[in-house]
Write a structure and sequence with these properties.
Blueprint: E1 18-22, H1 26-37, E2 41-46, H2 53-56, E3 60-61, H3 70-91, E4 100-101, E5 105-109, H4 112-128, H5 130-133, E6 136-139, H6 141-147, E7 156-160, E8 164-166, H7 168-181, E9 185-188, E10 193-196, E11 202-205, E12 210-213, E13 215-218, H8 224-230, E14 237-248, E15 259-261, E16 267-270, E17 275-279, E18 283-284, H9 294-307, E19 315-327, E20 335-338, E21 345-349, H10 355-370
Parallel strand pairs: 1-2, 1-13, 2-9, 5-15, 13-21
Antiparallel strand pairs: 3-8, 4-8, 5-7, 6-7, 10-11, 11-12, 14-17, 14-18, 14-19, 16-17, 20-21
Helix pairs in contact: 1-7, 1-10, 3-10
Bound molecules: flavin-adenine dinucleotide.
Flavin-adenine dinucleotide (FAD) binds at residues 22-28, 45-49, 52-54, 56-60, 190-191, 219-221, 223, 227, 242, 244, 279-280, 322, 324-325, 349, 351-357, 359.
Pfam families: DAO (PF01266)
Organism: Brevibacterium permense
Cofactor: FAD
Length: 383
Amino acid sequence: MTSTATDAPARTVDTCARVGVIGSGIAGASTAFALAYRGVDVIVVDDATAGQATAASAGIIAPWVSTSTGAYYETYAAGGNFYPEFLKRLIALGIPDLGYRRSGALVVNNDPDTLAEAAATIRERVAAARSVAGENHDVDAAELAELFPPIAPDMTGLLITGGGRVDGRVLRDAILTGARQYGAKFVADSAQAITASSRGTWSVRTTSAMDEFDALVIAGGARSADLLDRLGHPVGITPQRGQLLHLGLRGVNTSPWPTIHPLDHHYITPFDGGRIVAGATREDGVGFDVRATASGTKQVLDDALRIAPGLAEATVLEARIGVRPMSTREGALPYAGAVPGADGLWLASGFGAGGLTMGPLIGDGLARLILGEEATEIAHLAL
Ligand SMILES: Cc1cc2nc3c(=O)[nH]c(=O)nc-3n(C[C@H](O)[C@H](O)[C@H](O)COP(=O)(O)OP(=O)(O)OC[C@H]3O[C@@H](n4cnc5c(N)ncnc54)[C@H](O)[C@@H]3O)c2cc1C
């Protein structure tokens, strides 16, 4: 992003303000919730276009086992640490289903040396986040088969007991329900044009109405770049397609099964009711084409069955496709903060492959920034 006003303080608002949020994925929903929670009048606009990353996501909340490093990892880990506090806020509202379960994360490999090398880093990370990440211990082939019966017999592993998994759709809806309970409103429409007024407000034109806000948050996922581009504020966010498959194991209690991480980009997430999610592709250069393709499906199945051949007879229930908002700046660092040179305009996007984990933390921090408070935990995500 280029700007002539990067050093000017961002214009903040007070709790009497009216704030618009474009996008109701994890970024927009979390920001809207955090603003409404603090008494702000919030309107969320979302057009439910196919490809929402939050709706497709695999739901793994176990940053410690990821291959990410540097500031991206620190943000990812901080997001994991914030989850229990965030979920408490929703539980306090009496929202019955958050789609979350702490069922453990299991790192697996068939090469003991590869596993041992990765385990050293993971153990350090888990120790640094002990209250959330829980304990860890080595798992031999016999215990592995008890914890996750479809696993290949030549694997051994490392179990992190605090690993969690969440149904992105259920959590998103729970957050929006919570935001509504604090007074937020939801508009199911497309934000077609955004304009800055001379009064210092932001107008959003949807297909059916025009609305005016004291501050506006762009949380449009991978489409955020296009929205900002049209306003003359280019930002480095590109779409990355992720295809995953939902498999079904009839009559099997998969609820307590941990998530499976074979030290690669693919993984397996068990949910309740025999549902197993296998994913995911990472496809750059295909834009917003949200089809399930033959090669994507093959890749996901090949990866999953190599790790867990016991899934071979599972039913293929559905393919889900989401478009990850990938940040192109150094270290793939997400964006959260004021848009320089555009008073009252804010951005929360570019969360990449760990956004379901980071979203609540970043949304909470951004809401405080908009209200003129400190949010040191996301200061490094400024534009
Ligand atoms: C296959 C896959 C698996 C993943 N697995 C994990 C995981 O296991 N753990 C994890 O932590 N993260 C995971 N992620 C990453 C995570 O899902 C994303 O980083 C996160 O959901 C991004 O959230 P978002 O709100 O920025 O974008 P989105 O969820 O894409 O939401 C953006 C919303 O903005 C709306 N919008 C855009 N433009 C407009 C407009 N002009 N008007 C109205 N509405 C608009 C869109 O319709 C959409 O609903 C995964 C992602 C994918 C694709």
